[in-house]
Task: structure prediction
Amino acid sequence: MSDQRSRSGIRPALRDDVAALHALIVGLAEYEHAADEVKATAADLRAALFASSPAVFADVAEHDGEIVGMALWFRNYSTWTGRHGIYLEDLFVRPEHRGRGYGRALLAGLARRCVDEGLTRLEWSVLDWNEPALGFYRALGAAALDDWTVHRLSGEALARLASS
Result:
């Protein structure tokens, strides 16, 4: 076990964590009824997280040396505040480890990073049917942005616009 690892707690992801992170991503997709949509491989994840200038980052939650949760995130930018923020792409804790504070600790770590670095926002999206997650986020004081709707271009629509 690497000397950078703790037996339990939250820490930045290491190269050795990529397989566990990928398994958590698959677990999240299964929970969201979208397992067939995961196209990323562990190699893709390793290349993104450990590039010479990475644009995406991950923190992990450990319990007795096992990775049981993750927060995968990247910086965004607000033209209105003129400051960066953090966009949380994925937050996932294995079901058998929920209720132990790992999700809250992962989010608290990102909130500390925002405060310490002068970042103005911590944002994420959540599926509207995921009431356990919505309740968890409300309990933390997170506000839903009901007046904003997420839009996405992908697949054929993305290619069509790119070629126009």
Summary: Residues 102-117 form the longest helix (16 residues). The domain at 9-162 is CATH 3.40.630.30 (Aminopeptidase).
